[in-house]
Amino acid sequence: MDRTEKEGLVASMHQMLEDMSIVVVTHYSGLTVAEMGDLRDQMREAGANFKVTKNRLTRRALEGTKYQPLESFFQGPTAIAYSEDPVAAAKAAVNFAKTNDKLIVLGGALGEEQLDVTRVEELASLPSMDELRGKIVGMLKTPATRIAGVLQAPAGQIARVLGARAASGEAA
C-alpha cells in the first residue's frame, strides 16, 4: 500500500468515525476465517459493521474525532465494531464474545463518552432501536384496540339480550 492509498484510507476511516454513534474496540487473536465471517454476518444482521484495522492508520484516523481517547486500545490484533445505532455494535460484539473466547471486547466509546468493558456490556443489554420502536408502536396500538373492544361490547350485550328474549319467547 503506497502513501496515497494510506492517506485515502485514513481519510475515509476518519469520515466513517465522524458519522458513527458508537465504536467498540476488540482483539480478535485466533479467530478463523469462518469465525470472522460469522462475526461479520452477525454484525450486519444487527445493523453494525466490523473492520480489522491497522493500528497506526487507525490512530491517525482517530485524530480530531470524538473517539480520539480510544487510541490507547490500538495495540495488537485490533478490530472495531461500529454502528449508527447506539446499541447494535455493542450488542453484536458482546454476544459473539460470549460464545467465542477468541474475541475480546476491550472497550469503546458512545459519542464522546469513553466506555470500559463493563459499560459496553451494560449497553449491550439494552434493547436496540428497532426493539424500542416496536414497543412504542405496540403501546400506541393497544389503546385503539381497547377502545374498539369497549365500543363493540354494548352492541354485543344488546344482541345477546335480544337473542335470549327471543329464545325464551319461543319456548313459552
Helix count, DSSP H or I runs of 4 or more residues: 6
Q: How much of the sequence is in beta strands?
A: 15-25%
As a percent range, the share of helical residues equals 55-70%
Number of domains: 2
For this structure, the CATH topology of the largest domain is Alpha-Beta Plaits
What is the CATH superfamily of the largest domain? Ribosomal protein L10, N-terminal RNA-binding domain
Quick check: average pLDDT? 86
Give the biggest sheet. 5 strands, antiparallel
- The second-level CATH architecture of the largest domain is 2-Layer Sandwich
- Structural class computed from helices and strand pairing: alpha+beta
**Using only CA atoms, what is the Rg?**
27 Å
* Termini separation: 99 Å
Can you count the beta strands?
Answer: 5
Query: How are the strands ordered across the major sheet?
Result: 2-3-1-4-5
Name of the level-1 CATH class of the largest domain: Alpha Beta
Weakly predicted, low-confidence segments: none
List the helices and strands and how they pair.
Elements: H1 3-19, E1 22-27, H2 33-46, E2 49-52, H3 55-62, E3 78-83, H4 88-99, E4 104-110, E5 113-115, H5 117-124, H6 129-171
Antiparallel strand pairs: 1-3, 1-4, 2-3, 4-5
Helix pairs in contact: 1-3, 2-4, 4-5
Notes on the protein architecture:
- With 172 residues, this protein is an alpha+beta fold.
- The chain has two domains: 3-126, 2-Layer Sandwich (Alpha-Beta Plaits); 127-172.
- It contains six helices and five strands.
- The chain has a five-stranded antiparallel beta sheet.
- Strand 4 (104-110) and strand 5 (113-115) form a beta hairpin.
- Helix 2 (33-46) runs antiparallel to helix 4 (88-99).
- The termini are far apart.
